[in-house]
Amino acid sequence: MASKANTLLIGCGGIGTISALNLEVGGRAAVTAVLRSNFQEVSRKGFDIRSVDHGIVKGFKPTKILNAIPNVARDDLTPYKYVICTTKNYPDVPPTVVDLLRPAVTPGYSVVVLIQNGLNIEKPLLAAFPENVILSGVSFCGSHEIASGEILHEDSDKLFVGAFRNPTLDPTLEDLEAQEFTTIYGAGGKCIAEYQPDVGFTRWRKLLYNACLNSICAITDLDTGRLQLADGMVENLARPAMEEIRAAAKAFGHDLPADLVDFMITMDPITMYNPPSMQVDVRKGRFIEFENIVGEPVREGTSRGVPMPILTVYYHILRSLQWKLKEKKGLVTIPAPFDHTNTSS
Amino acid sequence: MASKANTLLIGCGGIGTISALNLEVGGRAAVTAVLRSNFQEVSRKGFDIRSVDHGIVKGFKPTKILNAIPNVARDDLTPYKYVICTTKNYPDVPPTVVDLLRPAVTPGYSVVVLIQNGLNIEKPLLAAFPENVILSGVSFCGSHEIASGEILHEDSDKLFVGAFRNPTLDPTLEDLEAQEFTTIYGAGGKCIAEYQPDVGFTRWRKLLYNACLNSICAITDLDTGRLQLADGMVENLARPAMEEIRAAAKAFGHDLPADLVDFMITMDPITMYNPPSMQVDVRKGRFIEFENIVGEPVREGTSRGVPMPILTVYYHILRSLQWKLKEKKGLVTIPAPFDHTNTSS
Fold first, then answer.
1. Domain spanning A5-197, CATH architecture
2. Minimum-distance CB partner of B271 among A219, A231, A336
3. What distance in Å separates the CA atoms of residue A277 and residue B110, rounded to the nearest whole number?
4. How far is CA A96 from CA A90, A116, A318, B222, in A?
5. pLDDT by residue (tens digit) across A9-24?
6. Which of A137, A203, B182, B342 could pair with B195 in a Cys bridge, judged by C-beta atoms 3.0 to 4.6 Å apart?
7. Which of B210, B220, B345 has the alpha carbon at shortest distance from B276?
8. Domains A5-197 and A201-328 belong to one CATH topology
C-alpha cells in the first residue's frame, strides 16, 4: 500500500467536505483542509454530515485543518502532492484562483485539481504554473453546508477527472496523473470517480445544465421544479439556450446527444423544487460564477460563428446582477444621486 | 362656455390624479374619480400634490369621489360623456379592463379613454363596446403616489390623444371626439395635450422605452441610471432590444427615427436613478403589464417575420415573474414538495 498523498484542499463547503471525506475514507490521501467561515466550529467538533453516500457522519475532521492557505516555500513545509481547489471561481472578483493557490503549489511537483465548473478555468493556471499538471474535476454532487460545519449531502458524489493539456508537459504523464488521482479519490468505494480523458466533452456536457438551467433559475428565481411547472419556461427559455450550447459544443468537436436536453431538464424531480447553486448564490447575496459558466461558452461559441443570442442575453443579465452586488459591497462606486425634482416647480 | 363634461376617471394613483387635476383645472370637465386603497384618506382631506406643473396643491378633491365603479344603467345615473381608465392593464389577471368599465359605459354615448401603455389594448374594448368611440391616451408623465393620497409629480404631463379605429363608426367622428377630448384635457394650460391621429406611431414610439427599458430594469433591478453606468448593459441589453422594436414598428409602417434610441436611453438623467414603473411594480410585489407592453409587440413583430429573439427572452422572463407572483397570491397552485432525501441513505 502506497503512503498517503499529502493533499491540500481549499474550499471546504458542501462539495469540498464530501471530497475531503471521500479522500480520507479511501485511505490513500491525508487531507489538509483550509477552512474560512467554519474554522472555529470545525476545529472544535468537526463536520456533522448527513450523506446519501456515507450515511450519518458525526464529527468528521480531515487529517489537518488550517484557517489560511499555507505558504509552502516560505515556511519550508512538506510539498503537497495534490492541491485541490473546490472554491467558487469568479475571475471578475479578486482574489483569482491563481492568487489563492500560488503559495501552496510547488512548481514541477504539485498536481493542481480544479473541481470547479465552467470553461477555460485552466487558462490562467497553465500560465501561472507551466511546470505543473492541472487536472479537471467535474463534479455531479448535491451537497450544501446548511449551517456552519453542518453538511447535507443529498445527491451522490460523481467526479469525472481528466487532464487539462499543459503545452509544456507530456500528455502521457498528465493522463497518468489523472488516472492516479481518480483511483485515490474513489478508493473508499463510496462515490463514483471516473477517469474521462476528454475534458472538453465532459465540461461542455455539464454546461448544458449549468450555463442554461443555472442561469435561468438565477435570473427568474424559479427553482428547477417551478421551471418545469411555469407556462412556457422550458420551451422558450431552457430548451433554446441548451440548443445553443449543443451547437457551440459541436463547433469544438463535442457531440452532445439531443436527448441530453430533456434528461437535464427533468433530472431534478419537480417536487424537489431544487434551486441550482447559482440561484442559491443570488438569493444569499453571494457572487456568481457567470464568467466561466456562461461568458466563456458564449465567447467560444460565437468566436466560431455559432449564433448564441439567448445565452448572450442571459450572460449580460447575470453580469448586471454581479455589478449590483459589487456596488453593494463597495467594489463599484457610482455618482451621488441628484434631486432633479428641485430643478422645476 | 360649454357645460362641464360628466367624466368618470378610474384609477386615481400617480397618473390618474394628475389627469383629474388637469381636467378640473381646465374647467371643462367635472370629474368623478373612483378610488380604492386611498378612498378613506382622500374623502377626509383630499390629495396632497407636489407637482412640477401645478406646484404645491393641498387637499385637491375631484368634483366627486366614489369607492366603487358606478352602474349607470342599473342605478339610473347621468351617463358619463367620458370614461377614462388610467389603471394598469394586465389581461392575464382578472378583472379585465372591459369587466371593470362595463357598468360605467353607456352604449353609443360614452367616449372611453384608455390612458394606458402597450399594444392592442383596444381590441377587447372594441369588441365589448362596438358603438362607442375608444380613444388612445399615451401619457408621458412621471408621477407617483408616495403615500396614501400623497402625489409626487416629477415629470411634466404630456398626453398624446388619438382615436382607435372602431370598424363600426365613422372615422371623422372618432377624430373629432379625440380632438375635443384633447382640448378639454389641456384647457387648464398646465400640461401638454396633443392630438396625434397616428395612434400606432405614438404607441410604438413609446414602446421603444417601455418594452425595452421597463423590461430590462424590471428583470435586472437596475434603475435607468445604473443601466447607463453598469458595463455593457446599454450596448448589449437595451440597444439591440430597441432595434427589434424599431424593426417591428417599421413592419407596421411606423418609421421610428434611429436617434430616438439614444434619446430614450439618456432621457432619465443618470443621477436621477429612476426606476421605471414596471421595476417599481416588481419591487412592490405588484402584477406587471408585460403582456401588452412586451408580449403584443413580440407577437405582432414576429407575425410579420421580424426576428425578435431578445425581446422574446425578456417576455418569457417577465412571464416567469408574473407566474411567481400568481403562485404567491394563490392564483396558481403547484404540487406539494416531496422530501427526496428520504428515499436514499
1. 3-Layer(aba) Sandwich (3.40)
2. A336
3. 56
4. 7, 13, 19, 27
5. 999 999 999 999 999 9
6. B182
7. B210
8. no
ipTM of the complex in this document: 0.93
Q: What b/e string do you get for A29-43 counting C-beta neighbours within 10 Å, with b at 16 or more?
A: bbbbbbbeebbebbe
Cα atoms in the Cβ-side hemisphere of radius 13 Å centred on A102: 9
Flag if B340 and A271 touch (Cβ within 8 Å). Answer: yes
* pLDDT at A1 > cutoff 80: no
> B201-328, what's its fold?
N-(1-d-carboxylethyl)-l-norvaline Dehydrogenase; domain 2 (1.10.1040)
Q: Give the bridge partners for B195, in sequence order.
A: B161
B107 in the Ramachandran plot: left (φ > 0), alpha (ψ -120 to 50) or beta?
Answer: beta
CA-to-CA distance for A15 and A286, rounded, in angstroms? 17
Spatial distance between the Cα atoms of B117 and B55, rounded to a whole number of angstroms: 26
Residue with cell 388612445: B136
Residue B2's pLDDT is 61
Q: What is the residue extent of each domain of chain B?
A: 5-197, 201-328
**pLDDT number for residue B339:** 76
Dihedral of CA atoms A150, A155, A156, A160 in degrees, nearest 10, equals: -100
Minimum CA–CA partner of A268 in chain B: B340
Chain A residues with CB inside 8 Å of B317's CB? 219-220, 237, 317
pLDDT band at A339 (very low <50, low <70, confident <90, very high): confident
- Cell 383596444 -> residue: B122
